[in-house]
Structure formats: C-alpha cells, structure tokens
Amino acid sequence: MGLLRRLSKAQRRLIFGRFVLGWMPKLSYVMVMVSFVWLLALPHQNYSKETYVSENALMPGSATVRYEWNDYQAAEKYRDVVQRISNLPSFERAEALQNEFSQLGLKSATQNYTLHTSIDSRHGVNTYAVFYAPRSDGTEALVLSAPWTSRKQETNTNAIAMLLALGKVFKLSDGEAEGLQAWLRAYHGIQESAKDRFDETLRIRSGAIQAALNLDFPGMGDYNALGIFFEGVNGQLPNLDMINTVAAITRNGGIAPAELTLHDELEPTTDNMTKNYINSLKKMLHMMKYQAAGMPTGNHGLYLKYKIDAITLYGFDKPGWPSQRYSLFRLGALIESTVRSLNNLLEHLHQSFFFYLLSGVKRYTSIGLYMPPVIILGVSFIFQALSLWGLSSDLPLDLDAIVESRKAAAVALPYSRRRRNFRVPATVISMSFIAGWASFLLLTTSFGFPGETLLLKLVASVGVCIALVFPAVTSAHVRNRILKEKRAKTPSSASASAELIPAPDWILLKTFILALSALVVTTLSALNFSLAVSIGVIIVLPYMAFRPSSWMVFSGIQVAALIAISPAGLLLAASSWYGMYPSLALSWVLEGYEVIGSWLLPTICGVYLPLNLATIIMVLLPVS
Amino acid sequence: MAGPDSRDHSAKATVVFASALVLRLALFHFPALSNILAGQVEISTPITSFKRLSEGVFLFKNGVPPYDGGVFHQSPLLLGLFYPIIASPFLVKLLYTLSDLAIGYMLLQITGIKDQDTAKEKKIRQYGDKIEDPGMDGLTVATLYLFNPFTIASCLGKSTILYSNLAVVAGIWMGMRRNKSLAMFNIALATYLSLYPAMLAIPVFLMLTRDVNDYSQVKRTVVQCASLFAASLVSLFLLSFVLVDTWDFFGSVYGTILAVSDLTPNLGLFWYFFIEMFDQFRPFFLMVFQIHVVIFAIPISIKLRHHPLFASFLLCTIMGAFKGYPSIGDASLYLGLLPLSSEIFKYMRYTFLIVNLFLYSSLLAPIFWYLWIYVGSGNANFFYAIGLVYGIGEIILMIDSTFAAMRRDFEALSPPETS
Prior knowledge:
The complex is a heterodimer. Chain A is α/β, with parallel strands linked by helices. Helices cover 54% and strands 12% of the residues of chain A. In chain A, helix 6 (240-250) links the parallel strand 8 and strand 9. Chain B is mainly α. In chain B, 70% of the residues lie in helices and 1% in strands.
C-alpha cells in the first residue's frame, strides 16, 4: 500500500515538475508581453476617464472675484518695482521686498539659510509675509509662493508682482528649491543640529498649511498657455482635486478662461484616433519621466513632503498657438478664485485620487488600471525564479525512470533532492549590495583632495564594482575546477551519489536575483510607480533570459547588454540623449539627493546597481 | 584529534560572537538609525517600547506612580532593571547587546544537548542506505539567530521583548539540561514579563521528563514543576509589589495585554478589528481572540510530545502570530528556535513562498506606514493588509514545518524498503 501511494506521489510530482520546468518559464514570457501591451494601452482614450471635482466643498469658481482694474494697475506698478530690484544681491532684494510687504500693512519677515552640499554651499534669504484673515481662528493657512528664478532661468517678474498685488501667507524663495525647503523646515519646527545646513527660525507664523500654489510666470509679457506641474519629490502627487479645481476655473466660460495643459507641452486635439493616442502617450511619458526622476518639477514638490497639496502654475507663450492671450488681469482672477475655492475646504483634501496617471489635463487613469501590469511583471519574475528554485533541487532528478522502473520504494522522496548550496549565491548577493553602498558613499562624500571631480568619483565607483566582479568570477571558476577534479578523483561508485551533486551555482544565484527583482519592482511601485515601471521594463527581459553560456561570444554579448543597462551605462545614454555632459547629469542627481532629499540616487546605488552587478557575475559563472 | 578540532570550533565561535557584538555596537553608534527603528510600530509595541519604559522610569524617579498615566505597561522588574542604568546610554546598549549574545550562546548549548539526545535515536535510512545527514551544528544555529535582520533591528530598536525572549530561551535551555527549578523559574519569569509564555511550561515540562518512563515519577515531577512555577511567579509578583509599592501594575501590565486597550497599530491582527468593533461585542471577541492564542498549547503538546523543542518553536510562532501586540522581536525568537529542528528542513515544501512572504511584508510594512502616516496618500487598510500578509507567512511557516515534522516521524516509523 505504502509503495503504491509513494509511486503515485512520484507521478504527481512528475506532472507538477513538468509544469514548473516546462511551462512556467514560457508562461512568464507571455506575461511580460501582456504587461507591456497593457502599459502601452494605458494612454488610450478607453482606459482613462474624464476628471471631475470630487470634493464638494471646493465649489470652484463660485465665489465672486474681487480682483479688479485698479488691482491690475497696482500689479503692473509692482512689476516695475520687481524688475528694478531683481538684480540686487539677495539680502538687499529681500529687504526691499519686505519693505513693500510692510507698506501694504502685512506682517513680513526674512529668513536666512545656508546649505552645504558635497559640491558647493549655498546661501540665500527668503522673504515671507502673513495676511491674517479678519474672521479666522488662525489654525489653518494657505500659501502662495514664487521663486526668484523661473523654470526658464529668467526672473519670475510677473509672479512676484502678482503676489504683491494680491494681498494669506506669501512666500518668496531665493535661489531654487533649497530656499523653500529651508522655509518649510523652519515652519514645521524641524530643528536638526546638522552641520551641513542652517535655517534661521521663523519669527511669524500662521496655522497649519492646508494647500499651496506656486507661481511661475517669467518675464513681463502676456502668455497664451497655462501649464500645470504637479510631480513632487520621489514621485509624490498632490490630490487630483488641486488640478481639477484649476481646470474648472480656467475652462471656457469660467472665471478666467485660459489654455490649460500639463507641463509645458501643447498638442493640438484632432479627430484622428492614432494622433490622439500618440499625444496622450507623449503626455503620459512626460509625466512618468518627471515622476520617475523623483525630482520635483517646481517648488510645489517640496510642500508635498509635508502633507500639503500643491501645484505650480506656469505661464508660457507658445508662438503661433491660436488660443487667447491673457495678462496679469486674468491671472489675478485665476489665482484669487483658486485660493478662494481652496479656502472653502473644511478638511484636508482627501476625496479625490492620490494615485493616478494623467494622459491629459482632464483625463486620468486610476490605480486599479495601472497597477496590474507591474504586478504581472513581478509575478513573471517570480515564476522564473520558482522554476529555477525547483531546478536547483529535486525536479531534474530521474523521476521518469523512477516511475517507469517502479523502484520508487527505494527512494524516500525528500532524499532524492539535491542539496542546495547557498554559499556562493549568498556571498555574491551580499558582496554586490556592499559594493552598491560603497559606490553610494563614494559619490556622496567629498574627500577634499585637489582635482576631485564628480566624474572621477564615478570612475572610482565603477572601479569598486569591477574590483568586485573580477575576483568573484575568477574565484568561482577556480573553485569549480577544484571541485570537478575532486569528483573525478573519487569515481562515483553508485549512481545515487552522482545524482546528488549540487546544481551549478548560477541557478541559485539567478533565483535570488529574480526574486529580489520582483521584490524591488513591486514594492517600489507603491512608492513611485513610474520609477518601478521604468526599472521593471529595463531589467525584465535581460534578467530573465540571460544565463551563463559556454560560447564566449554569447557571454560577451550578454555582459555588454548588462553593462549598457548598468547605472553608468544608463547615465551615459541619458546624457547623450539630452546633450548634456555626464558629469552634469550626475551632479543633477546628486543635487536632488543632497538638497531636496530625493531617493533616486540611493535607489539606484542601493538596489539597482547590486542586482545589475550580481547578474553580470551570474552570466560569467561556470556553466556547470 | 578532538583537541585541535574543538579549538578550531571555539575559535570560530569567538569570531561569530565577537562580530555580532561589534556589529551591534557599531550600529548603535548611529543614533539616528536606532531612533528610527525604535519609532517603527513593527518593532516597538505599546508593551515593549523603550520610549515608554524611559517614561516609566522617569515618573518612578520623580516619585510619580508610573502606572497612573496609562502610558507605561511594562513589568515593575524591568523598571527596576533599568532604573540604575538608564542615565547611561552606553550601559543600556551594552545590556541589550549582551542579552542578544546570551540568547545566541544558549541556542548553541541547546543544540549540543539535542545532538546528544538524537545520538540515541533510531536512525533514518536514506537513498542508497546512507544515514540521514546531521542537522545544523550549534554555531550555525547561533549565527542564524545573531545575524537575523529581525533580531538586529529589534535589538537596535531597544524593544524590551528581548528580555522575555531571553527568559524563554533560558527556560528551554534549563529544560534540556533537566534543571527543574531554573527551568520553571525562567518560564515563570517570561510569563511575568509578557504573560503568553506561560504556555511554554508544558513543552518545558516534557523536556524535563523526556527519558522518564516511570509513571509515578512523572506524576511527582508534574506536582513539583507546578509548584515551582507558581512559587516563582508569586515571588516575582511580591518582589514587584515591594518595588513599586502598589498592585496597580496588574491592571496596567496584564490588563493591557489581555484587554488590548491600547490600539496603536502594529503587525498583529487585533487592532484593526477592535477599532472597528461596536462596544457591546468587544468582550466576546476579545475572549475569542485571546482563547485562540492559548488553545493550541495542549493539543500541540500532546501531538508533539516526543519533540518538545519543536513544540516550543510552534507555540512561540503561535504567540508571535496571534497575540495582541506582536512585533518582529517575536519573529526573531521563533526564527531563532526553528533551526534547532533543522533535521526537518528537507521535508519542507514552501520555503520559497515563506521567505518571500516575510521579505515582502517586512519591506512593504514600513512603506505603507509611510504612505499612510507621512504622505497621507494611503490609509489604514494598506498597513493592515501587510499585517495580514505577514500573518499568512507565519501561518504557512507553522503548517509547513508541522507537516515536515510529522513526515519525518512517518519516515522514521516506516523506512523506505531497500530492494
């Protein structure tokens, strides 16, 4: 009886084993294809919905706007003032602005800050003023802010004039993001005794900031389009209702009609399906690019870190675009109306979506539709890993023979397994994680010796990685040869012991790599969907398909492909695509980490690079 | 031959323990890391948080009854332990590190005793009529405990579950050494610290009587052990009363554990239920949940009476999965006890799945917590879902390891016929 039961169990295992070994890898490639097609389908009209204002309390555009002709004239006057003081050094500029604010009867102050990064140190002065609403209890506040320099590196003249003319909390930040960062840290009382930054404490404050608008209207002219930037640090997004509110106010026949778009791209709408799809795809790719980079596309991104929903409004002029031009007059109405409707909020924005992809300013794809492809990608990694995990142990054993010869009784099943040898894969994985963090430390610390440049550090960190790969591969080959010789010396008496030779090391190593890749892609997708998708799409096919080969040329091709998708290779590719110097691109990433606290560099060095290194080593390991 | 071999072994042990010590002290050197870990809800629960302990000590030092505020829910003797040393951060860190090392050392010793025991056992034959491979040696078991990321994180986060774990492992060690009084004292101490380890009195009793065939002697041992256990527990309570001069600690320590009155989110299954629940149902479901934790003690001890070590692993896992305030400190205990039964590993079927579930939940829990609490784009459901995934991981671990242990028993009873 026992014999029969075991036999049938062996048969069952055989069937299962055939499925795992034969079909699961094929299935996983099918799943990758499904996932890619799904991702490409996302921008299509049928997979996105029209946005709508979800929070009823907002009532966009229903409050009467008080911004009138004389305010417009005042704004024009301020424009001249701003133009005059814009070329002064930051301290005097801040003083002059503070003066203007106090002449308006607003409580105003300045804030000094200093920030040391590994490249340089920055110093600047923020100016801010608080308008206490007459009948409020002072527990909540809205912020309007504008940086001195615009996206286009011009002076943000119109925006600052606008701030002066509208008379909530105002905030003018010096420099770029770091100014606002210093102010927000101080506002929320984060006092770290770190030696690398100094933020002066704020003297006047208001309540908890509910929402913020960041203005970016460069130059002194009029605009014919209004762009919305909304991606924050590490791919955080503001509540979709922020965008919906502005969209409702600027719609045709609204308070302040304007040509609203995402970012600074305008695409004509047509009846042509294909063209529409390509436009949507472009917009979505833009959004995903900004989100994956983890760098805020404007100062609004910093508010998001403090649970404050914020967007940047960006005015720009596209020559030849047929929409109506708007000046400070309509802009004033737009901003006032937006602030008024945010003022209506009874509680923090929470009604609408926090997880979305936009394929147009009025079309969104919700999380339920865009998450499955990433999950499918993760599962396809897992399927491959599972099949290799089986391969590393019991499945390739001669189950066929056992079933046919009916000698199963001699084999207790658990013993028919090969022993898994974890030593090599565990060492390789942990060493590559150490190498990843070492290169991270190398890039972020300044050693202070002369002639130290970023490019040099990059070369050094690549050197660290090579210093890992080379000995790992050679020692693995030497070890393999010794083991083989040992085996040859002691000829296996029974076929039994021959069958129990452990599987080659690369199988387990690849299992680990695939399982970790699945882990990285799926967990990261909760934090920053676009980054997770980009990583997943880049690594899925190489990591799944590559394996050691006895044919040297083939291994060479694989290693070359892996080097091309290594962080250094991607950096080179990106910098040549955008026509930048690699060192400039690198300093941009580094600045994001040190100034704004973006996680792109830690993610790349701490997660992506180790997996890449381990895969390179895996490809070069002995075949058997 | 034995001389150099054992010297080699002890040299290896020195390396392992020294590197564990250095690693912990080095990581303690970054106060930011330690503070972040201490703030994680997966590590510090209301009944094990070091922050609350410091609060209790502070109140106690200033003459305020520590149990009055409703913040402090830890045993008076922990208060007494930290009272003299809390002013010196270094001593506190050293105490945590050494306690962890002590657990590692005891696991090493337990493996040694177990190996002597199994030497007498009937051998299982395998493929080609070889004798079953020996399980992991003591040093590997200790290494697996000392370098388990859960253990390190829990130690750095200064979760006081460590002392309860110490008492549990000490109890098992003494049980294996057939030292009745110390074994029972340690289990009583663990019970005193976190209540649930009372269940372990049964497997430890089984360890104490593992070679005794005389029924009347077993009966005598039962009585002895029960009275030793009760006496130790009562004396610990009396000692506590002497220390804090009030019986308030009963309600504050054991009342909180039993009634789950502090609903700070954690990895467990209780908080979400009891936040949602109408008050009139609370007592009923509270009873159901709590009985569910302890109800396994007797059936498991009966079924696995020949494997008391495995039974205690299983009971610790049940505690870690189903109690009101579980943390990864509990996981570090049962994952430390699991390799003591390493001979069952080859029968386990879902290792890959279990490892993945633990990996995913330990990465996603902080991420979802961050999305919920800091970013505000997630909500409580996200975090609780990960608690469920973690729970599933623990449950599959229990099912699979129990299957493996049963399967090995079966294999020993009916060895494969060699033809």
